[in-house]
């Protein structure tokens, strides 16, 4: 998966989790535990990819894979 794909997967997992509101606070229900863990992993991998991208881009500039466009689509 690319960084943008990890980001989108984290968003998807968070959106499908079971959330409840109590006294103005929102929290996930117990059955959402595995999805929350997976979402955290995907979010961490997306952050890592976004952080590393400038160094990778500078090293492989001639082989630009379109990553900036991918990130722009994800965050817009």
What layout of secondary structure does this protein have?
Layout: H1 3-16, E1 19-22, E2 25-28, H2 33-59, H3 67-75
Antiparallel strand pairs: 1-2
Helix pairs in contact: 1-2, 1-3
Give a structural overview:
66% of the residues lie in helices and 11% in strands. The chain has 76 residues and is mainly α. It has one domain.
List its salient traits.
76 residues, mainly alpha, 3 helices, 2 strands
The biggest sheet amounts to: 2 strands, antiparallel
Q: Provide the number of structural domains.
A: 1
Determine the number of helices (DSSP H or I, runs of at least 4 residues). 3
In one word, what is the shape?
Answer: elongated
**Mean pLDDT metric:** 78
> How much strand content do the residues show?
5-15%
| Contiguous runs where pLDDT drops below 50 for at least 5 residues | none
Secondary-structure content class: mainly alpha
Order of helices and strands: HEEHH
Report the C-alpha radius of gyration, rounded. Answer: 16 Å
Beta strand count: 2
Ends distance: 20 Å
The percent range for helix content is 55-70%
Task: Strand order, main sheet: write it out.
Answer: 1-2
């Amino acid at each position: 998966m690319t960084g943008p794909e990890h980001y989108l997967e984290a968003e998807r997992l968070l959106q499908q989790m079971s959330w409840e509101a109590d006294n103005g606070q929102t929290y996930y229900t117990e059955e959402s535990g595995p999805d929350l863990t997976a979402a955290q992993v995907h979010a961490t991998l997306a952050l890592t990819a976004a952080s590393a991208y400038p160094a990778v881009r500078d090293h492989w500039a001639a082989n630009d894979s379109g990553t900036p466009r991918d990130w722009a689509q994800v965050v817009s």
